[in-house]
Design brief:
It is built from 8 helices and no strands. Helices cover about 60% and strands about 0% of the residues. α7 runs antiparallel to α8 (about 130-135). It has one domain. With about 140 residues, it is mostly helical.
């Protein structure tokens, strides 16, 4: 069993035809979206399909007419568009959270200014909105 793990791809994966549904078309054409951002917040986990270098080489050696028949480039662009849309949606949600936080900061500043006379402060602090504006965010 250990020899099978160390010997590389099994015979069953090398025998797959390039048009098999188990083959990752994104990997064949370019880069699989599952491999792009591993170990980051955008990580979508391992690809459930087969990544086979021999099939990728077969694709690159094929002529333009054969590539057009397979239609892998269309699938690749569709998969990448889905991945980019997902990333854009996550960025948009994070931006909305930040805008909401800035709005809450402005409201809090207004409340602090309205009630400054109740609690005298021995030192002047900058408004909360300035503190929020100066914060750096870790967007990794």
């Amino acid at each position: 069993m250990g020899e099978q793990l160390l010997s590389g791809p099994s015979q069953s994966t090398t025998k797959l035809p390039i048009t098999d549904a188990k083959v990752c078309r994104s990997y064949i054409v370019g880069t699989c979206p599952h491999d792009l951002f591993t170990n980051t917040k955008q990580d979508i986990g391992p690809c459930p399909k087969v990544h086979n270098e021999a099939l990728k080489n077969e694709y690159t050696e094929a002529g333009q007419e054969q590539k057009r028949k397979w239609g892998f480039e269309f699938d690749y662009l569709r998969d990448m568009a889905k991945f980019v849309n997902d990333c854009d949606r996550r960025i948009e949600a994070a931006t909305r959270r930040l805008e909401r936080t800035a709005e809450e900061g402005r409201v809090l500043d207004g409340l602090v200014c309205a009630h400054e006379h109740l609690l005298p402060c021995p030192f002047q602090t900058p408004p909360l909105s300035l503190l929020l504006a100066n914060m750096t965010l870790n967007t990794a």
